[in-house]
Design goal:
With 314 residues, this protein is an alpha+beta fold. Helices cover 44% and strands 29% of the residues. The protein has 5 helices and 8 strands, in the order H-H-H-H-E-E-E-E-E-E-E-E-H. It has a 4-stranded antiparallel sheet with strand order 1-8-7-6, with no helix packed on it. The protein is elongated, with a radius of gyration of 36 Å.
Length: 314
């Protein structure tokens, strides 16, 4: 009988790709393990850094909130104390002016201090000592000028400013000191301001033509009666005209005493110098409502309009 030969399986011949697969299997496992380790490490590091940053931000917010609360309480007590002192008749003018200085230099961005300045000016006018009266007036005007300068500095970069010089009429020699006489005058000038709104790829240009007309003045009180007309055009199409009549003096503070315009803009008239019988120097300021005083809150329609424009722009 013939012996049977055992069956030997044929060895499959491996090509290049099979060899590469055999070599890459352990390498792939190593790469996977390293990738998981790196992702875990960097993920953990990222989360730890994020938690640390959030903790720092939370701590900073708490500190700032506590600081603001402390400052608000201090300013409230200070305001009540100073205001109560000014309105009492038992203190001298010198003390009251000092209290007003403390009030003006600490609260000029959040309070309309014009009534207190006018009140103090009336009190100074009753002073019988001419030298003291002159000194007090200079001190009061300097204080008002400092506050105006501080507010204009705060608006620097956001406000457009134009200067006008109001000329006194030729018959101003009729003025007699101490009689607080009102004189008529006829003076007018205009300035132009622009602001642009961008929505997507479209630019809308607002043009404001500001007309200022002076109709009268008082030398003793250092006041000028003016009329302000502001003509607004959007893309060269007339929209409206805003008109106001008021009296300007050294106590107009632009961040608070201003005219509200469309597109949440403001226009303020500030008297910088009353140099009789030469001229009155006036600044016209045009700035966004976001830079007005803390007491000036934007209208809801202005806020919604800006939010919608930002959304469309995105």
């Amino acid at each position: 009988m013939d012996t049977e030969k055992p069956l030997v399986p044929k060895k499959e011949k491996r090509d290049l790709w099979d060899k590469i697969q055999i070599v890459m299997q352990p390498i792939g496992g190593l790469i996977t393990a390293l990738t998981i380790a790196l992702v875990s490490y960097y993920g953990s590091s990222y989360l730890n850094n994020k938690q640390n940053n959030e903790a720092k931000i939370s701590l900073y917010t708490q500190l700032m909130s506590s600081r603001e609360q402390s400052e608000s309480a201090l300013r409230k007590d200070m305001f009540n104390s100073i205001l109560g002192t000014i309105l009492k008749d038992s203190h001298s003018l010198d003390e009251n002016i000092l209290q007003l200085e403390l009030l003006a230099y600490n609260f000029h961005e959040s309070l309309n201090l014009m009534p207190l300045f006018v009140y103090m000016s009336r009190q100074i006018a009753l002073e019988k000592n001419i030298q003291l009266k002159t000194d007090y007036q200079k001190r009061l005007y300097k204080m008002a000028g400092d506050v105006i300068s501080k507010q204009i500095s705060s608006l620097e970069g956001a406000a457009a400013r134009e200067t006008m010089f109001i000329s006194f009429p030729g018959d101003s020699i009729k003025y007699k000191p101490g009689l607080s006489q009102d004189f008529a005058m006829d003076w007018k000038d205009s300035k132009v301001f622009y602001d642009t709104i961008k929505v997507g790829n479209t630019n809308s240009v607002y043009k404001r033509v500001v007309f200022l007309k002076a109709s009268g003045f008082n030398v003793d009180e250092k006041t000028v009666n003016v009329r302000l007309d502001i003509e607004t055009s959007l893309n060269n199409k007339f929209i409206n005209m805003v008109t106001q009549e008021f009296t300007i003096d050294y106590f107009q503070f632009p961040m608070i005493d201003n005219t509200r315009l469309s597109n949440d803009m403001r226009c303020a008239v500030v008297m910088r110098d009353f140099s009789f019988p030469n001229f009155v120097e006036v600044d016209i300021l045009y700035f966004p409502g976001s830079h007005s005083s803390l007491k000036e809150k934007p209208y809801y329609d202005d806020v919604v309009k800006k939010l919608l424009m930002n959304k469309e722009g995105n």
